[in-house]
Amino acid sequence: MTADPYCEHLASPNPWVLGLSVQLVIGILVSYIPQHVKIIRHGTSAGLSPWWVLLGTISSIAALANILVLPASQHDMACCREISGTACGAALLGVVQIGVQWVCFMTIMVLFLVFFPRDAFAQTPPEHLSPDTPRKRDAVIVGVVSLVSLLTVGLISTIFLFRLPSHLLSWANFLGILAAILSSVQYIPQLYTTWKVKQVLSLSIATMVIQVPGAFLFAFSLWLRVGWEGWSTWFVYCVTGVLQGSLLVMAITFYKKEKDGQAGEHEATETDPLLEQSGSHN
């Protein structure tokens, strides 16, 4: 038995909630793999908006810091001193979920930089590039701002944890609101980029197919843990699900048009020799 009734409750985790959380952790990891693989296989991050990558990275940093400093999460971590390791792991699965998502999106950011489409600059002078073509400075901005954001949020969160613990909820809510706003804005440049090029390119449809319903399940699982008081933690994933769903519909539409166009060209290529032979006989 534990001295804290809340910790006593955590000592016997709900099997249904536990199972859902474990599945979501696995689902988050699996959902990002197609996007990582597609960038690596294609050898380019063309089609990914630099601002989608940057805003998504900062949003994931804010979301991770949000759940780490949230008083409910702090209480869960404190209870780990009084409950078993298994119960502790179950109590912290919400933190693990967002932590895994942060790692996965940070991986996208790194792959975006590593496979940044440099060939466009080698073959075309900068003054002749389309205004929509990502510049080298965009890659630099993404890398530098992401690193500065990680260090800044980490430092400020540490100060609140050890110097201003009474203001943790306010800081957590600010981070949650920031993450929600950035997630909302994040998809605007990617929606614009995809609409402009009218191709999927390095964007993974498989990742979005998994993540769109997963975003709402993720939000629900977090709500079960932090309740309405922690709305700033789960609301961001509702916003993300709606916007990513819009991007998914657009990507599927362009993918089908691209496939139909390729099929039409293939039929025309096969028909041309037959027409030539018919013409020669005439």
TrEMBL record:
One GO CC annotation: membrane
Topological type in the membrane: Multi-pass membrane protein
Key word Membrane present: yes
SMART domains for the chain: CTNS
Principal cellular location given in the protein's record: membrane
Keywords: Membrane, Transmembrane, Transmembrane helix
InterPro entries: LAAT-1, PQ-loop_rpt
Residue span of region Disordered: 263-282
Entry keyword Transmembrane helix: yes
Membrane-crossing segments per the record: 16-34, 46-70, 90-116, 139-162, 168-188, 200-222, 234-255
Subcellular location: Membrane
Protein name, per record: PQ loop repeat protein-like protein
Biological source species: Aureobasidium pullulans EXF-150
